[in-house]
Amino acid sequence: MKQCIRFTAFMVCLLVAPALADNPKVYPVGSLKPVDSVLKVKVGDPAPDFELPALKGGTVRLSDFKGKKNVVLSFVPAAWTPVCSDQWPGYNLAMELFDQSNAKLIGISVDNTPTQYAWTKEMGGIEFTILSDFWPHGAVADTYGLLRSSGEAERALIIIDMKGIIRYIDVHDINLRPDLGILIGELQKLNQQD
Amino acid sequence: MKRLTLILLVLALLCTAPARAGDLFPDVTLLGAMSDTQKEYLGVSTEGFKISDIKAEYVFVEVYSMYCPICQVDAPKLEDIHTKIGLTGGSDRIKFIGIGAGNTPFEIEFYRKKFSVAFPLFEDPDYIIHKALGEVGTPSFYLVKLKGGSMEILFFQEGEIKDTDGLFKILMDKTVQ
Predict the structure, then answer these.
(1) What is the predicted pLDDT for the residue at A181?
(2) Residues of A carrying an active site annotation
């Protein structure tokens, strides 16, 4: 009897799993291990510098923003997957909130630039900087301890202050979208402290 | 024992099948901060009430998300329809509400300000209402008959508003006796 109820409860959980992105082109990945890597950085550390190809052309180096802007790194696991396919359009809508905190939002995925191009077009266009951590595969994600054993990145948010110091890290459950309110609250706190 | 399992599974399937026109809209509890004007608009006195508590003959429900690009595109169109319904004297007859699937209070408030949404928006951070609706895509739109305690879905659309005037006409045709 208990086994039957457990099985039924399991089936119910499967049936009522959180909604996926609604675009039929989005690949359904199912429920994944929430976190599958070990951080190599911590709050208070200098952020490891990197230079990656940008979707809008050229390359972008993290240290270029030192002394000018706070930086928010938004690592997402992969293009054409649920949650990622709505997280960035939401941030795109809320760009003014990042601007108000003098923050440069940078999205990073392990996909190559042509894939990011097609994916962001499908999402209606993304205005903020998108970088490709494709080759060496996931090297930047790995430097931060955010590369999963499957080769995708974690869903993670990292705030770096104008001095280049890491001030906030959220390695989020890969299956869930982080609350924008918490991220913006952290940026506001950072500005109040400085 | 097997029968119990089967019944529970069937119930789970029924619960998760998307509601369509002709079905009954689930009488879910709506949560979220409201201004006095919005409470007056819906004819309720407290925050946290059921759809059936809304004082109107019909309610038009949008299930949306701040993170959904199509919802972002649709937001001004929906506000146009809401305004036109008011201009034709229909605002007492049809009330508009939005339910933010997976959206937190912060995200609801940001979306409301961003698109100057005049009608009340309600939070659903844990997808409880979204699940009760069978996990429909966003945006989804429902016209629900409230008069007589009906809760019948008179119109359902999943996806982008492609014809704003057409949707306005549907709402008028289905609610004017």
Answers:
(1) 97
(2) 84
Question: In chain A, which residues have their Cβ closer than 8 Å to the Cβ of B110?
Answer: 94, 97, 180
Residue at B106 is within a domain = yes
C-alpha span between B78 and A124 (Å, rounded): 19
Domain that holds residue B64: 19-175
What are A24-62's pLDDT values in tens digits? Answer: 677 777 788 999 999 999 999 999 999 999 999 999 999
- Asked if pLDDT for residue A5 goes beyond 70, the answer is no
- Taking every pair of C-alpha atoms in chain B, what is the biggest distance, in angstroms? 58
Examine residue B149 and state whether it is found in any structural domain, yes or no: yes
Contact, B144 vs B43, CB < 8 A? Answer: no
Look at residue B25 and tell me if it is in a domain: yes
Domain-embedded: residue B97: yes
**CATH classification at residue B74:** 3.40.30.10
Say if the ipTM goes beyond 0.85: no
Cβ of A16 and B16 within 8 Å?
yes
Distances (CA, A) of B174 to B13, B102, B148, B163: 30, 30, 16, 17
Instruction: State pLDDT tens for residues B81-140.
Output: 999 999 988 888 999 999 999 999 999 999 999 999 999 999 999 999 999 999 899 999
Contact by Cβ (8 Å): A76, A153:
yes
* Rounded average pLDDT over A56-71: 97
Please state, in angstroms and rounded to a whole number, the distance separating the CA atoms of residues A64 and A75.
19
Cβ neighbours of B2 in A, within 8 Å: 4
Interchain pair B107, A180: CB under 8 A: yes
pLDDT at position B177 is 64
Mutation choice for A interface testing from B6, B11, B66, B106 by most A CBs within 10 A: B106
Contacts of B111 in chain A (CB under 8 A): 93
* CATH numeric code, A45-193: 3.40.30.10
